[in-house]
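Running this now, will post back.
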Amino acid sequence: MDRAFFAELSTAARAAIVFELDRGLACDNKLEGGFDPVTEADRAAERALRAAIEARYPEHGISGEEYGRVRPDAAIQWSLDPVDGTRALVCGLPSWAVLVGLIEKGEHIAGMIDLPAIDDCLVAVVGETLRNGRPARTSGCRQLAEARLSTTDPNLFSRPELEAFEHVRRLCRLTRFGLDAMAYARVATGDIDLVIENGLKPHDYDALVAVVRGAGGHIGNWMGGDDLSGGSVVAAASHELYQQAVGRLSACKAIR
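Update: finished.
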């Protein structure tokens, strides 16, 4: 996979989003009894990403948060979250991201975490993550006592999940909230050491896997495995730190 194509995807999505922001951001709610925003920027960015992929790789499958799936049986699949962190976007915060993952026969082979608001783009191809064209590396942190931890919102956890998260949080050096996909980007750049989340969907995590791994980090589920389909995700600066975190998570009887 050509890195230059990810740059094209970034340019296309950013242009679509800027256009909608300049027009005045329209926002709808997808959730009854709660608030799950979607904006015209989300939809426009996904249309732009799909058009670029269709033009270059018409035989590939595409799955996106806003417009569903085409060619689900294709060996190579693109996974799109055109605006991850829409709540941040509508609040004028910079942590929202454009996420693009590339999966071949079930393996995450490439990915992009693009943070347009701060002009920061991480792309992983062939097992190497670059940040704005330069190699990105995790901190290599191996101990929970030295770790900087993040989750987007502890209120998104169920009571048992929050109890398990607290088993880890109490051992970490500090904790930051509200970063969405930016937290995973910061694991890859060495600024955050550990991210623990649950309830994620494939479009939320598909781009993250290659980026974290390509920077020397480890990403897996809460029980120590590689299958993320259950929505539980732990991203760590090192395999040793990951093992410590999942050891604490799985020790919590509430989530067994």
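The mean pLDDT is 94. More later if anyone needs it.
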